User: Fold this.
Amino acid sequence: MVVWHNPKCSKSRATIEALDIKKVQYTIREYLKDTPTKNEIIDLIKLLKIKDPRDMMRTKEDEYKELDLANKSADVLIDAMVSTPKLIERPIAINNGKAAIGRPLENIIEII
Assistant:
């Protein structure tokens, strides 16, 4: 399992704690430091089975509003996540061909 993690985020930290309690093997990817590529985000959208990239974005972030992303195309949204990874929702876990956004945490528990 790979967890896209932001250590400053309480939900992300709670996910790591829950995985530790369940003794799940995982690798942390601090996506703010190790920015995903456009292809990785496209692949993740497919694994999450979402149609709109906004479903994995933090639409309340100032950067979302500053970049005027409300009515942009999927391609522009994906480029925005690459250039501004803070816009990516967290945490996200990827395990055995499945992915889940950890809001709520139970979503990640389901793909273990």
Q: What stands out?
A: The longest strand covers residues 92-95.
